[in-house]
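Working notes for the structural subgroup meeting. M.R. asked for a predicted model of this chain before we commit to crystallization trials. I am recording the input and output together here so anyone reviewing the notebook later can reproduce the run.

Input as submitted:
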Amino acid sequence: MITIRPARADDDFSALAQLYLTAWQTSYQDMLPADFLNQLTVDQYHPEANWQHLFVAVNEQDQFVGVCSYGPSRRQRFAGYGEINSIYLLPTQQRQGIGQRLMHAALGIMDLIVLSCGC
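Returned structure, recorded in token form:
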């Protein structure tokens, strides 16, 4: 069973960075040059910098299988709106509805933020 939950300050962010790397290298293998993907390293990902704006998907062993990053819109003309920045899943977890569940969790919290600020 997969659980969707907000990221926590004590999460293993190195494991989450590895999820980002794996997802990038597999998801974009037919779109980006192999040389580019092969030069990526886990050190380039810093989910701990934005953990308050992450939802994670974890399996029964509490291992990360997916992540969704969200926050305020990055475009001024959409100030007061939220934005989903990314959704990444391990290849073995794709096409099972986990990404949709992550998206709904992020959309739900963004609705609460907009309602609470009166935007």
